[in-house]
């Protein structure tokens, strides 16, 4: 059914349906943040950074699964016309499935593991099978046939892991996530059938660029939602009000750092690239790092509002400072995608955050959050100084 395909001359702007779809991910990211906060506040976990990283690894698996669903949906609406009723049904069905995934997050590593694994595999296998059945005679049918083999393969460890003990489950789900991500990265190669060589970035770079920055806005919006809700769960006193203000300032700085030039011209960079597919994959990974950084920062904000004047435990410091550091790492890669270079303030900011982390253990969380905000402010101010009085820099992606 060639009429399902997006026409090259069609507007590349995301549709209201896609913005509607993103609403579920506000809730989903909120649940991920909740799980991170639980990770950071479990007795022994809060005391040692190494243990907290191990605990966070389980929550990261769930985030990666959600990211895979969102990314595949963004690719779908880049290749196919979202105004076609059949595509709208696919997107809305994926939206419902994503809602079930979000609901299952809180117990996905225990009581609701089967709901999470079953819903995830149903979305990936079901959606891909739909396109295999409807795209008869079109080259994209073969792409979906190859992807279907990989999603069917990853479904086995997903479903078996849902019934396995904790350690086995984590290993099986890590394997399943690896299969899904490796398959997409390699073009879903299947012996005897070859691999897919069609990249949506090559034909819809402008659309995908806008979808990724919309997801960044969703993630930043989640930090505001979490911070405001956290303030309401306790007395509204001066210290907690200041904590909310710091959290909001941090969110504003993350927004400013993202949209400073590179965040506005990703579509141009993709169009100017000699290899849009490779550049698009780098852009995708950079956004995964940034969204993960925002999520961790949001968890740090909730920890801050719990006890703003207490003693910051090692795991709390890792969240409050580590989130912005991870965000700057993703933003550095993103800048390289757009300009084939990285401004020095970004890696310097990462090094400063890492260097001060040991010094912040035991200090009031307000002080830790203020230090993170000062570093981000330094990066944002350096951007403004560098841009002052100069013409807007044009995209110059790596060759």
UniProtKB/TrEMBL annotation:
Transmembrane domains' residue ranges: 89-109, 115-133, 145-164, 241-259, 315-334, 368-385
Keyword terms: Membrane, Transmembrane, Transmembrane helix
InterPro entries, sorted: Low_temperature_requirement_A
Record Pfam families: LtrA (PF06772)
Domain of life of the native organism: Bacteria
PANTHER family named among the record's database cross-references: BLL5714 PROTEIN
Record protein name field: Low temperature requirement protein A
